[in-house]
Amino acid sequence: MNAIRMSCAAYAALSLAVLTLSAFGAHAAPAPCPGNPDALGTARVLDVDVAATPQVGRKQFPQTLPLSPREVVLTFDDGPWPQTTERVLDALKAECVRATFFLIGRNALARPALAQRELAEGHTVAYHSFSHPMLDHMPIAAAQSDIERGFAAVDAALYGHAEHGPTTAFFRFPYFASTPPLLGWLQSRRMVVFGADLWASDWNPMTPDQELRLILGRVEETQGGIILFHDTKAQTAAMLPAFLRALKMRGFSIVDVVDAATHPRTQ
Ligand SMILES: [Zn+2]
Questions:
Q1: What is the pTM for the complete model shown?
Q2: What separation in Å is there between the alpha carbon of 44 and the centre of ligand 1?
Q3: What is the spatial distance between Cα 177 and Cα 180, in angstroms, rounded to a whole number?
Q4: Helix, strand or coil for residue 73?
Q5: Do the Cβ atoms of 42 and 196 come closer than 8 Å?
Q6: pLDDT tens, 210-259?
Q7: C-beta neighbour count of 15 within 10 angstroms
Q8: What is the C-alpha to C-alpha distance for residues 158 and 109, in angstroms, rounded to an integer?
Q9: CA-CA distances (angstroms) from residue 47 to 53, 170, 228, 250?
Q10: Cα–ligand 1 centroid distance for 13 (angstroms)
Q11: How many angstroms does the Cα of residue 98 sit away from the middle of ligand 1?
């Protein structure tokens, strides 16, 4: 109940902020960031609709989100995870940046408070299966069952109930291992499937500095896009503050993606 009250309060505050900003036009400057006047901030909110963009991310699909050059969407997979997810959330909060987290169901059930913190701090919380299997190597019924169990686990962790189906219509396949029948099924469920436009290769061992150089090179090359990180990785958590500062200095801006159908931020 606490989490529900907290998230409702956060949404009420955000709705007020949106109403206030809308008086000055759709592209008004982001709200001030407490304690950090030079924050990167979140430049705009993008409603994502399954009818327009059922699958996004150029690494896997022919199209991506309608982003302008040097716009970035931050996404984090596989959490929530002790310490590393907390450090990632702290870094995002310090720069007033909103991101999207794709949670593994069993991790969300193990650490519901961390999942609730993501939601309470204004991030989009979405789904990444229950047990992170290679879904393309399984019978379709077993794959669908793991995906559904992931929806229910994350919703149970966030809201204390799971009876209404996936609350946010965003899903990412573990290992990007989709199949045409599963993609068709998710589209019939009105789920947007996220791939990525670039990534930090943070599943490979490297120092935070190496990861920072790698992702900055890639984001300059692609001119932004949907970036995949893992909030389970210590080197990602360690380099994130410097990465966010570098995005600001290089003139990139952050886009917050929300589910056009269900998310209260867009009401
Ligand atoms: Zn994953």
A1: 0.88
A2: 26
A3: 10
A4: strand
A5: no
A6: 999 999 999 999 999 999 999 999 999 999 999 999 999 999 999 999 99
A7: 14
A8: 9
A9: 10, 12, 19, 25
A10: 32
A11: 20
